[in-house]
Amino acid sequence: MGDHIYLNFFDGMEKSTLREIQLRDNSFQKINDRALQIFRHLAHLDFSNNNIVLGRLDDLFLNEMKLTKIASFAFNNSNLKLLSLTKCNIKFTSDNFDYANLFRWSPNLQRLQLDSNNMYEMNASSLMSMLSPLKKLKDLNLESTKLKTLSAEIFKPLVSLRHLDLTLNSISGWPITLFSNVSKLSRLLMASNKIRVIKEGYLPSSLMEYLISLDLSENPFDCSCENLWFRKWMDNMILKKPDIFSNYPNHYRCATPSRLQGTLLMNYNPTDEDCRPWGHVLMDIIITSSAVCFIFACAAVVYIQRWNIRYLLHTIYMRRKKYTLLRDIDFQYDIYVAYSDKDASWVRNELWRELGQERGFKLYIRDKYEDPGVAKCDSIINNMYDSRKVLLVISSSFMSCPWCLYQLQVAQGRAVHTGPNWMIPVILGDLQIRHVTKSIRVLLTQENAITWSEEENGKRLFWSTILRSIETSVNLNDVIDDNSQIEI
């Protein structure tokens, strides 16, 4: 039969409806490129086990072949430099292709054109597995392949890649590290995808250093503050490389928001101030809130530590002034104490113990020095006039006690001649407003009433103020213990 299939090899079979031809196990070495055109119904052609060798094949174009399946070793040719499968309507699925071995035997492939095929069902790991053997690939065309996502490592094996075409896909974003391993890339086409926002890091400086052309045209850009970084980055890139963006500016337009739809991207120029109005408000709120919280915190601390603070101030004041008092030998008592029966226990346990026992003052307390056979009103007047000071323990029970109010009247009458400093009003407990008489109101208005506190430092302040009012005759250091400490 010979070793060639010439143009007239099948003469006389022009009208044949032959669907299958078996030419296996022959010695064919060459086939005329039009020898098989007459078989319009041919569905199966078998050239197995012939001597057809494509040892010097550099470029292989199989465009528009309507391929459904490609065998694992179909491209077993180490000399192959260019392979074009454009518009073959290939549906890349795991059932039809052995991804790991599809290009495994074409290690020197430099140009691969897979545009206008269907990779919709192809996952990222399968695409990476298919491309990983192509270490010398320089030009990869994946235009219109229905790609939606790209994995971070997909282009990492393609260390020689110079041109990458991802036009007309459904890509909206990608991992930050996607282009970090393709630093030799000079042309990147990503037009007509679904890119709304270009985030910082999407196009690293290592990529942009060598990139000559970048096509991002016909993408639905979002003209909002989300693209603030991208707009500023674009302007900076144009200053460095004026022609870097293909089809710019007419094919770069805003898609959202609706009020800016159709606006040229170059005319959308947000500023940092435009994009941080809420940031300023939030900052003002934070500062104001912090200031208010600080003021409240200070107020709370001052309130909680009020006795400590007042005690400290009084202690400093008294130590500076070093008050002394001349003890008048004409007075039988240092202090006349007026109190109600309900407050007697406080007078004995607190007042007497501190001023009488600890400080050595002589206090007139009716429970201790009652005058037998003397009328109560006379006893009050005699002993009060025989005392250098009068201390009034004012409480709710004091204000409701007739004898207590009588003692107050006597003391106020005496104060007309001695002056207001003769009386020392002490407030014990909370006062009920309805019991506050006019005379007591006048007393509390004119005199600095001293309030009893159960807090430790409050007590210290209380006694310090009492001593100041009494004006002890000894040096201040004898009245106030220099070793007393204030706990704050």
UniProtKB/TrEMBL annotation:
<keyword id="KW-0472">Membrane</keyword>
<protein>
    <recommendedName>
        <fullName>TIR domain-containing protein</fullName>
    </recommendedName>
</protein>
<dbReference type="InterPro" id="IPR035897">
    <property type="entry name" value="Toll_tir_struct_dom_sf"/>
</dbReference>
<keyword id="KW-0677">Repeat</keyword>
<feature type="transmembrane region" description="Helical">
    <location>
        <begin position="278"/>
        <end position="304"/>
    </location>
</feature>
<keyword id="KW-0675">Receptor</keyword>
<keyword id="KW-0812">Transmembrane</keyword>
<keyword id="KW-0325">Glycoprotein</keyword>
<dbReference type="GO" id="GO:0007165">
    <property type="term" value="P:signal transduction"/>
</dbReference>
<comment type="similarity">
    <text>Belongs to the Toll-like receptor family.</text>
</comment>
<keyword id="KW-1133">Transmembrane helix</keyword>
<dbReference type="InterPro" id="IPR000483">
    <property type="entry name" value="Cys-rich_flank_reg_C"/>
</dbReference>
<dbReference type="InterPro" id="IPR032675">
    <property type="entry name" value="LRR_dom_sf"/>
</dbReference>
<dbReference type="GO" id="GO:0005886">
    <property type="term" value="C:plasma membrane"/>
</dbReference>
<dbReference type="GO" id="GO:0038023">
    <property type="term" value="F:signaling receptor activity"/>
</dbReference>
<keyword id="KW-0433">Leucine-rich repeat</keyword>
<dbReference type="InterPro" id="IPR001611">
    <property type="entry name" value="Leu-rich_rpt"/>
</dbReference>
<dbReference type="Pfam" id="PF13855">
    <property type="entry name" value="LRR_8"/>
</dbReference>
<dbReference type="InterPro" id="IPR003591">
    <property type="entry name" value="Leu-rich_rpt_typical-subtyp"/>
</dbReference>
<feature type="domain" description="TIR">
    <location>
        <begin position="331"/>
        <end position="470"/>
    </location>
</feature>
<dbReference type="Pfam" id="PF01582">
    <property type="entry name" value="TIR"/>
</dbReference>
<keyword id="KW-0732">Signal</keyword>
<dbReference type="InterPro" id="IPR000157">
    <property type="entry name" value="TIR_dom"/>
</dbReference>
